[in-house]
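P.,

For your records, the input lines for the assembly:
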Amino acid sequence: MAIDRDSNVYTIVFATVMVVIVGGLLAFIASSLKPIQKANTTNEKMQNILQAIGLEEMRTLQRDEAGAIFNDFVKRRVTINYKGEILSDKSAADAIDPQDKLDAFNIDLRKEYSRAVKPILSANKGDDEAIKTALSQSEAIHFPIFICEKDGQKYYVLSASGKGLWDDVWGYIGFKADGETVNGAVFDHKGETPGLGSIITEAWFEDQFVGKTIAENGAFTPIKVLKPGKNLNNHQVDGISGATFTGVGVDEMLTRNLEVYYNFFKNNSEF
Amino acid sequence: MSEEKKSEPLFSKKNKALITNPLNSINPVTIQVLGICSALAVTVQMDNAIIMSLAVTAVLIIGNVLVSLMRNIIPGKIRIIVQLVIVAALVIIVDQVLKAYVYDVSKKLSVFVGLIITNCIIMGRLEAFALGNKSWASALDGLGNGIGYGLVLVVVAFFKEVFGSGTLTIPGLGKLTIIPESVYDMGYMDNGLMLLPPSSLFIVAVYIWVQKTRNPELIED
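Structure tokens returned:
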């Protein structure tokens, strides 16, 4: 059997067969692992939301346990827009439908930030009024609210996303029933420097937010991330040495997002 | 029985050398200076370094065996492309498996898993060894080079994590505190530089220095 391994025909046939086999194999593996991967990301999101409530018992919550108890705590999922209009309102009894893009649980914070928010921020750099006008006109930005209950006590878990030094940062912030006092916070990031910016995911940084408020004399007052070592008031937390820009990013995303929620709670006292 | 005697034993002296040589005299990282980029980047914590080494070793062994099995049917004109496709496919499979079964690790390694494909060790071994050798020898060669690579990564990660964070993160054991709180109370501080990629260069350099001092035959004129 003499096959000329240098002939063009052989080369082309070999390449074609190889591509078909490899392509088929990869497609098969990707589609068979997809449900497990999807469950991982869903459970992680549930874990983050539950931990952001700020309850002591949630500290050791494992990712794969989160799914089972999620509905015991999260009683209502509401999605609002920048102007505070309710776009979706689901109770714990309504199952989370992955197709329902407006369900608060399905809001993809990072995608909305990079597709809708970021262009607005960079187009109107420095002009806060123009940014606010543009944000309020955008249809693509959603703000999820998770209304949680534990022993008759209400908690709100709100979210924020922005940009750190290298890539996206995002977080869930739990508020007490007054809608002003922070009860817990969970941050995450895509690619902040390990050991520096990545410290925003560590407990000492997140715990600083507990007890801080976003209101002063009936007006919105953002929580600021300062250089470490200063005297802190009720609206300030220590930043991380060596990770100034990550701190700035967290600061910016909290200011931008929490103001929307603050106004919403102020205008909708039934919540 | 008689046939087995005629063929080379599975762990002949020559085959053993395929595993042991890459650990020292032809170490892929310190002697051949391949795969340096990932040695700089994924060594901040011990567990990342170990998982990365396992992933690279797995890709290396399977890639070597596949290319070795196909070495007589791969068209010479497109052999590099064929190798690339094999490696790329394996890397994607590793990435997908990590995402499904060890999600936390895959989050930490993020882009570096995908970058295994650019790890020169892999293409280097496929081209230099697997294309001209039988599959068993190629598997051993892959294993040896994988361990040689992992050895350097683990040593670098050890120093970076202990001096950068005062901890050691070992898979299965979690984060172990190496430097006790009392030392911090006395004024000791973690070295921030150790967390950044440049410190790996220093550690790899010291590693090469120690290695060459102990093995004078490795010193080039």
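Two observations worth noting. The interface with chain A takes residues 44-45, 73-78, 81-82, 85-86, 89, 92-93, 96-97, 99-101, 103-104, 110-111, 164-165, 192, 195-196 of chain B (CB under 8 Å). The two ends of chain B are 49 Å apart (CA to CA).

Regards
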